[in-house]
Amino acid sequence: EKLKPASQFVGGKAIEVSQVAAQWALEASIVLGKHAVSRGHDASIFLGKKGGELAVQSWPHLVDAADGARHLAVEASSAAAGSASQVLAASVERLLGCMAPIEELQSSEDYESDEH
Predict the structure, then answer these.
(1) DSSP state of 5
(2) How open is the CA angle 88-94-97, to the nearest 5 degrees?
(3) For residues 6 and 9, what is the distance between their CA atoms, to the nearest angstrom?
(4) What is the pLDDT of residues 5-58, one digit of tens each?
(5) In whole angstroms, what is the distance from residue 80 CA to residue 24 CA?
């Protein structure tokens, strides 16, 4: 019977110690969680600033690339216009070449009709 009160005492103390340890663990996890959130916030701000700096630093490169693309597009358009001009000139030349025999034929027919 004397053991019973001692075991109850020890059991009660174990529960108290367990509750204290659980409370301490909860408080420690809250503090660590707040610290992690704070550090995460700081890291987000840092990375956001670095991202902004990188974007500003990349603008000249983007502008150069866009200017190069524009220059290539102008050259391609110019080359296409030159080719189209050559094709049109060749087509007009062929058309005129086809019309010349018709005009000569009409001229000779007019000449023959004038003689008769």
Answers:
(1) H
(2) 140
(3) 5
(4) 767 777 788 888 888 888 898 889 889 888 888 888 888 888 889 988 888 888
(5) 79
Q: Residue with structure tokens 């034929």?
A: 105
Distance CA 47, CA 41 (A): 10
Best-predicted range by mean pLDDT (6-15, 55-64, 95-104): 55-64
Q: What is the DSSP string of 10-46?
A: HHHHHHHHHHHHHHHHHHHHHHHHHHHHHHHHHHHHH
| Residue position matching structure tokens 């108290």 | 16
Let me know how many helices (H) and strands (E) the chain has, helices first.
1, 0
User: Is the dihedral angle over the CA atoms 26, 32, 34, 40 positive or is it negative?
Assistant: negative
Residues 86, 90: Cα–Cα separation, whole Å: 6
Q: Which residue has the tokens 């610290």?
A: 35
pTM: 0.40
